[in-house]
Amino acid sequence: QYDEVEFDISGMTCAACSNRIEKVLNKTGGVSNATVNLATENAVIEYNSNVLSEGDLIARIDNLGYGATAKE
Ligand code: 9UX
């Protein structure tokens, strides 16, 4: 089952940051689409909740050195 989550991302200072997060998430198993907007510090992630959880996504982003907080 596919779910969509929106995160507030902290710690991004240049465009390579957002591209990096996007790339890593899009390569992560269970993620069908990830878009990260540097200007709005927003990330929209579509993922399969049978494969990973919202917490797994947050941990993945955290590991890269950024902060993620769910918007809902
Ligand atoms: Mo830009 Mo982001 O030099 O971690 S890639 S600040």
Automatic annotation (TrEMBL):
Ranges of residues in domain HMA = 3-69
Q: Where in the cell is it found?
A: Cell membrane
Q: Which domain of life is it from?
A: Bacteria
Query: Which family would the database say this protein is a member of?
Result: Belongs to the cation transport ATPase (P-type) (TC 3.A.3) family. Type IB subfamily.
Write down what this protein is called. Answer: Copper-exporting P-type ATPase
Species for this entry = Lacicoccus qingdaonensis
Q: Which residues of the full protein are shown?
A: 70 to 141 of 794
